[in-house]
Amino acid sequence: MVRSKRIALFIEDDIVANRLAVQILQPAGYQVERLSAEAELQARFQIDLPNALIIDESLAPKVVRALFKDFPLLPIIFYTGDASSEAIIQRYQEGFQAVLTAQDDQVQALLAINRAVQRQEDWQRWLEFEQKRHTQSLEKRVEDLERLHRIGGKISASLNLDQVLTEVVTAAVELTNAEEGNLMLLDEESGNLVLRAAHSVEEQRTNILRVPIYDTLLGEVIRTQKAVTLGGGELTKIQTAFLVRALVYVPLIMGEQAIGVLGIYNREREQTFSEYHQMLLEALADYAAIAIQNAHYYTANERERQKLHTILTNVRDGVLVLDEEQRILLINAACLQAFGLQEQDYSGWPIEQVISNQDLILMLKQSPSQWIKGGEIRLEDGRIWNCQLTPIENVGLAVTMHDITHLKELDRIKSEFVSTVSHDLRSPLTAILGYTELIGRVGPLNERQQEFVKRVQASVQGITTLISDLLDLGRIEAGLDARKELIDIRPLLRQSLDSFANFLSEKEQQLVVEIAPSTPQVWGNPVRLQQMIANLVSNAIKYTPKGGKLGVRARLEDGQLILQVWDTGVGIPVAEQPYIFEKFYRASNLPEDVSGTGLGLTIVKSIVEDHQGRIWVESTPGQGTTFTIVLPAAAMEQPPNPQA
Ligand code: ADP
After folding, report:
1. Is 570 a pocket residue for ligand 1 (Cβ < 6 Å)?
2. Does the Cβ of 532 fall within 6 Å of ligand 1?
């Protein structure tokens, strides 16, 4: 059913209103609604707009103006009793669609009303049409943007540059409805633009493959880094034998430079390109530039990765990288060869399933804080490798292994040499010492001669000490004192300390001895342990001034023997503390008259390590020094290294 048209009346005079409704509007098929409350008009029309409104002077001009403003599509017809032409013209000027007067006959009145209603319907239709047109163009733009967005996503996910560039050109052609499109990149060597991707609606079209940038439109785009739009239907010659009716060129910019041009063409169609098309193309060109940059990064990255891989695989040192669960991430050729492994991909294998070398496996099982020290491992073929363990955050652990077999051999030869030479030097020195003692007996010496003899004796004594230190060190390092027995530390300590009574009273020093009854037994070599204590106590006496205090403490703690030798002497400069256990190292703050070889602490450390113990020093220059030794207590039946 067709809804009948509706006319609203705001007429004060009932007779007039009735005449309009009954005689004119209703017979013509209009539905009539009478309104009387000014205040309700707006609200009423918001819900349901009539096809026209007929009013008379009773409706306030203010309300009428508001209706004109708020309902521009509503024809408002004025009814007046005053039929003078001035009055009628004035109403038209005020904006009324039609003016009815009391003099109009029915036909005239109906005609005017019908015209107004017809106008309103025309406007309405036009409006709907425009609305649709706008919606369509908006929808197209949304679609275009979605397509752009999709391409953007593809670009970040794809590393296939050719595919991405072809995609960009295809999108350029399809989004702009062009006949052809292409993407040319600058070849830096030749200075030409070279075709990288093309798309054409007609497959047989051939694209230009190479264009010089000198004196061409494309070159212009590269130089100015600005887009160019041409068009107007005329055929324009862009290059030799390349005629187009319309085109858009946009530059591909990477960093500060134009590296190429994205172009679309119409060669037959007369359709030109708009600013909107240029904008789409610019967005696509940006995508293409990003893809090219990504590809550059990827290639550079890949090259670096390959280089690193080649270096790691081919270095002579062993390289092993493990993840946090100690599964293999990388194992290089040197490593495979050293552990007698076949060449294959071990990635992801737990290390223990691949490598059976127990030295290495034990090292990896240590707590990460122990890794820093690294260590040595013995390979099956007898070679010795030094291992450095480096924890790497978010990766795991890198193990680098360096062959030190030759160094070990050198060290052995050197120790042997030192030991032989020392041994051979000892006999002539004993003879020299003997004869210096005899000199005085064969005839009287004057005072200066006696002084000289004393100096010779002191020097020979010094050399003899040095030689016996070297010999001792050689023996300990060579593992010649490996035999261990169960030793009661307390009597051993007392014995050692008793032998220093003379030195202590000479320097008027006080010795504080604190040996706890709990002090445990240890497995050890009694001669070496005594030497260890003697070296530390004699240092404490030597490096503590006359009248000073020193002491020895021994106790059991956590199943270990803790032994401390402390003094109130000169101390050791902090920066030098790491070096004092090295051979021949003597600190820079030595008192002038204190002689020594710089081997005492090296010997102590070797003895401690030979007994599976640890030693460290704490010292404050000018206040004193404490050496602490920790040895495993002898809780077991067997010594710690039973094979010895
Ligand atoms: P030295 O024969 O010189 O005493 P050591 O190997 O026994 O050689 O000691 C190395 C160096 O460590 C000493 O020269 C000295 O500088 C320092 N040192 C050792 N013990 C002490 C100590 N108790 N007080 C101060 N310095 C010490």
Report:
1. yes
2. no
- Whether the per-residue pLDDT at 1 is higher than 50: the answer is no
Q: How far apart are the first and last CA of the chain?
A: 116
Contact criterion met (CB below 8 Å) for 604 and 532: yes
Residue 473 near ligand 1, beta carbon < 6 Å: no
Q: Which of 331, 349, 193 is nearest to 262 (CA)?
A: 193
Alpha-carbon span 1 to 19, nearest angstrom:
28
pLDDT in tens, 457-481: 988 988 888 888 888 888 887 777 7
Which residue's CA lies nearest to atom 21 of ligand 1? 539
The tens digit of pLDDT for each residue in 406-450 reads 998 988 888 788 878 888 888 888 899 899 989 888 888 899 999
* pLDDT digits 0-9 by tens, 368-377: 777 777 788 9
If you measure from the C-alpha of residue 587 to the centroid of ligand 1, how many angstroms do you get, rounded to a whole number?
A: 7
Task: Please report, rounded to a whole number, the percentage of residues in the chain having pLDDT higher than 70.
Answer: 95
How far apart CA 529 and CA 512 sit, in angstroms, is: 20
How sure is the predictor about 642, in pLDDT bands with cuts at 50, 70 and 90? Answer: very low
pTM of the model: 0.47
Q: For residue 31, report the phi and psi dihedrals to the nearest 5 degrees.
A: -95, 135
**Which of 461, 476, 543, 604 for a ligand 1 pocket mutation test, highest count of atoms within 8 Å of Cβ?**
543
The rounded Å distance from CA 564 to ligand 1 centre is 15
Are 154 and 164 contacting, i.e. CB atoms less than 8 angstroms apart? yes
Q: Whose CA is nearest to atom 12 of ligand 1?
A: 580
Please give the residue that has the higher pLDDT: either 390 or 157: 390
Q: How far apart are CA 388 and CA 377, in angstroms?
A: 11
- C-alpha of residue 545 to centroid of ligand 1, in Å: 14
Furthest-apart CA atoms within the chain: distance in Å: 175
Per-residue pLDDT tens digits for 133-155? 898 888 888 888 888 888 778 77
Q: Which atom of ligand 1 is nearest to the CA of 544?
A: 24
DSSP symbols for 390-412 = EEETTTEEEEEEEE-HHHHHHHH
| Residue 84 dihedral angles phi and psi, to the nearest 5° | -65, 145
- CB distance 493 to 629 below 8 Å: no
For ligand 1, say whether the CB of 88 is within 6 Å of any of its atoms: no
- Pocket flag, ligand 1, residue 548 (CB < 6 Å): no
